[in-house]
Specification:
Structural class: alpha/beta
GO cellular component, one term: cytosol
Number of domains: 2
CATH architecture of the largest domain: 3-Layer(aba) Sandwich
Helix content: 40-55%
Shape: globular
GO molecular function: glutamate dehydrogenase (NADP+) activity; nucleotide binding
Radius of gyration: 21 Å
Keywords: NAD, Nucleotide-binding, Oxidoreductase
CATH topology of the largest domain: Rossmann fold
Number of helices: 18
Subunit structure: Homohexamer.
Pfam families: ELFV_dehydrog, ELFV_dehydrog_N
């Protein structure tokens, strides 16, 4: 890092020393930008780095709701509106006990660059609550969502801030929040994405993040003279992203050999496809069971309290669970076991030590802000359909998504090469995304 970049990061660490995930994300971006700010001093002169690392607005509020026994419950709610230079704030709502302002700042900061890479007019934001929907009845979830939206509606809108789903927020939660928003403002408008198909949702939206991650990984493999055909692919997670990543990998001729949840991992050498994939979908989406039940059903190994990374050999790894799930030691195991590409289907699932291992061993490594941009890209396509009062076919949406992911890969590769780090997708993604946002900030003058 040069003096300007390191100075911005040092100030950030002093100011927000307790927000570890946010600082990790900021450091990863800022250290990529040294060649950009050295080549073009206009960014330093306008204080762009100091401005881009601070949210434009953070809203926090309490969410009172009543459980089925009539007890009053209180949760915390947040919306971090990080940057609106290229469009309205766009990013998911997360319901999980781990949610706090620092986690949402990390996610919102990443969202700025992820959205920029899609080439769609969307700024970066993120929100959520420490509410846990697991074990709650539909009525409890509805009352919670209605209470949340009674405050959140003041801060969002189709041209201001357009939330979506994330961990703990699926179609049920989006529906309850949208219904309360419509009730309060007396307007039917595209204020949320991930809506039901009957009332403004987009086809392929559930599949989009997983499909998009595979499309990006496919381009990485093609750049190195190969593809998914015949490849052993290791996935983590077993939720929406992992499920549809597995489906697309199967379609492209790969074999998905692992999945996991918060309790442990399975290894299925026969591949999680066909009837087995359908069983997994029912297990996780309808019965909401644990991955161990899959192991019991098909007689495959189950590893309690372990991620899959060091458990067997694989050609490609797609971490699709949560942040910092691949440690430096895990990365070493993947390299030792022959991995030829790693693509992040989740948000920042690799620790800095793991990223260093992959890059140091010349393993093509796709960062989450590029690889998992397919979800928000299709949310952007949903916004377009809402604005035009149209519904595109599944084939049209998937074709547009594929084109977006191919273009993101090309942008990352070209930016990395332009700034002297050919093949480094981390630098390429950060540089390509930053320049679009930073130049827009310059055009609009000293606001926020």
């Amino acid at each position: 890092m040069n003096e300007y970049v390191s100075g911005v990061l040092d100030d950030l660490k002093k100011k927000y020393y307790w927000e570890k995930e946010f600082l990790q994300a900021a450091e990863e971006v800022l250290e990529s930008l040294t060649p950009v700010v050295e080549r073009d001093p206009k960014y330093k002169a306008a204080g762009i780095l100091e401005r881009i690392v601070e949210p434009e607005r953070v809203v926090s509020f309490k969410i009172p709701w009543q459980d089925d026994k009539g007890n009053t419950r209180i949760n915390s709610g947040y919306r971090v509106e990080f940057n609106s230079a290229i469009g309205p704030y766009k990013g998911g709502m997360r319901f999980h006990p781990s949610v706090n302002q620092g986690i949402l700042k990390f996610l919102g900061f990443e969202q700025i660059f992820k959205n920029s890479l899609t080439s769609l007019p969307m700024g970066g934001g993120k929100g959520g609550s420490d509410f846990d929907p697991k074990g709650k009845s539909d009525a409890e979830v509805m009352r919670f969502c209605q209470s949340l939206m009674t405050e959140l509606y003041r801060h969002i809108g189709p041209n201001t801030d357009v939330p979506a789903g994330d961990i703990g927020v699926g179609g049920r939660e989006i529906g309850y929040m949208f219904g309360q928003y419509k009730r309060i403002v007396n307007r039917f408008e595209g204020v949320l994405t991930g809506k039901g198909l009957n009332w403004g949702g987009s086809l392929v939206r559930p599949e989009a993040t997983g499909f998009g991650a595979v499309f990006f990984a496919e381009e990485m493999l093609k750049a190195n003279g190969t593809d998914f055909s015949g490849k052993r692919v290791m996935l983590s997670g077993s939720g929406n992203v992992a499920q549809y990543a597995a489906q697309k990998i199967n379609q492209l001729g790969g074999t998905v050999i692992s999945m996991s949840d918060s309790a442990g991992s399975i290894i299925d050498e026969n591949g999680i496809s066909g009837e087995r994939w359908e069983y997994l979908m029912d297990l996780k989406n309808n019965r909401r069971g644990r991955i161990k039940e899959y192991a019991d059903e098909y007689g495959v190994p189950y590893y309690d309290a372990k991620r899959p990374w060091g458990l067997t050999k694989a050609d490609v790894a797609l971490p699709c669970a949560t942040q910092n799930e691949i440690s430096g030691d895990d990365a070493q195991e993947l390299v030792k076991n022959g991995v030829i590409a790693v693509a992040e289907g989740a948000n920042m699932p690799s620790t800095p030590e793991a990223v260093e291992v992959f890059l140091g061993n010349k393993i093509p490594f796709g960062p989450g802000k590029a690889v998992n941009a397919g979800g928000v890209a299709t949310s952007g396509l949903e916004m377009s359909q809402n604005s035009m009062r149209l519904n595109w076919s599944a084939e049209e949406v998937e074709e547009k998504l594929h084109t977006i992911m191919v273009n993101i890969h090309r942008s990352c590769a070209e930016a990395a090469e332009e700034y002297g780090t050919a093949g480094n997708y981390v630098n390429g993604a950060n540089i390509a995304a930053f320049k679009k946002v930073a130049d827009s900030m310059l055009d609009q003058g000293l606001v926020f």
